[in-house]
Recover the amino acids of this structure.
């Protein structure tokens, strides 16, 4: 029996957001006190993606450490890479509570957090204070009160501020919990946003003498034509990677369960098939021109392997860590290693 299996009933007895905050606080304290081992990614065959060398293919998805407070603690779990955020230019409280719900019978989670975070400046200070020197992704978004027609301004502010501190930057246009955000996945909106971001990336690379890749994170609730349009835009603007996927608005697999009808994005096991299908469709549409990073529904090593079998280059974990704990990282690295 793993230590996490003993702790989980205690955590699950708490309100989900309270439990999450307590976990981040404890991990932050251990990391800053120097009580954790240095970064030692679980061994695997290193893989080059986006021009970066990943020591293994299993990463932490954005959302668990929104403010970059516990980077060293998450690194100690053996991930090949860490992604923090989503962060917005200005601090914001997010949506009213309660806004986070466990669905244990389905091994799912529904959240409507709404990009609650302390702002990009606070995140940058946390990154600078961390000892971690592995691959760090920083996920950026827009403030809730920035009009959607001015969304690019927020993303450009975020990109400029995190650029010196990130290994890669993820552009989150797929959270269902910020009003109208997914509208940016539309053909004309996406074209304009990616054009502005690519121009800023080129400028920053020239000024700072360092190229930081850009990834786009998309939703699972897309039609085939939308996926094709997104793939075309990614190629046209020479974006470096795409992350498939964020949470879903679908309630397939959780209808009738306690909290199953809560508003927000559904993650965890009910998302597995839908997110994998989107990843597979993107791999086909992109034909190897840029890599797909897969996220969504991974609760065991076989699920991570299925993402790679669908053509993904890397995999990210989120809700599975809530249900399985650190053992999931080891299991997924072992499963993806066996695949090679």
């Amino acid at each position: 029996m793993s230590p996490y299996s003993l702790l989980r009933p205690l955590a699950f007895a708490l309100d989900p957001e309270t439990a999450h905050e307590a976990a981040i606080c404890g991990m932050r304290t251990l990391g800053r006190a120097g009580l954790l081992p240095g970064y030692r990614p679980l061994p695997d065959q290193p893989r080059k993606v986006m021009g970066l060398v990943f020591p293994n293919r299993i990463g932490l998805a954005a959302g668990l450490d929104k403010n970059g407070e516990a980077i060293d603690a998450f690194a100690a779990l053996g991930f090949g890479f860490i992604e923090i955020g989503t962060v917005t230019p200005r601090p914001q409280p997010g949506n009213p509570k309660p806004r986070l719900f466990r669905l244990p019978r389905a091994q799912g989670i529904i959240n409507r957090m709404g990009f609650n975070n302390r702002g990009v400046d606070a995140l940058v200070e946390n990154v600078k204070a961390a000892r971690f020197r592995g691959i760090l992704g920083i996920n950026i978004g827009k403030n809730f009160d920035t009009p959607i027609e001015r969304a690019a301004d927020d993303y450009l502010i975020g990109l400029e501020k995190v650029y010196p501190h990130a290994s890669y930057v993820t552009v989150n246009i797929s959270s269902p919990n910020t009003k109208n955000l997914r509208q940016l996945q539309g053909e004309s909106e996406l074209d304009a946003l990616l054009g502005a971001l690519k121009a800023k990336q080129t400028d920053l690379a020239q000024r700072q003498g360092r190229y930081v890749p850009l990834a786009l994170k998309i939703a699972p609730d897309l039609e085939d034509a939308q996926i094709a349009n997104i793939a075309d835009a990614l190629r046209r603007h020479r974006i470096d990677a795409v992350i498939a996927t964020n949470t879903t608005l679908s309630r397939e697999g959780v209808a009738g369960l306690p909290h199953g009808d809560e508003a927000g994005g559904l993650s965890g096991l009910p998302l597995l098939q839908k997110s994998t299908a989107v990843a597979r469709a993107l791999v086909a549409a992109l034909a190897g021109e840029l890599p797909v990073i897969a996220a969504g529904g991974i609760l065991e090593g076989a699920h991570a392997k299925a993402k790679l079998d669908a053509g993904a280059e890397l995999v990210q974990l989120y809700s599975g860590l809530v249900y399985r704990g650190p053992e999931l990282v080891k299991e997924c690295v072992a499963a993806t290693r066996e695949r090679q």
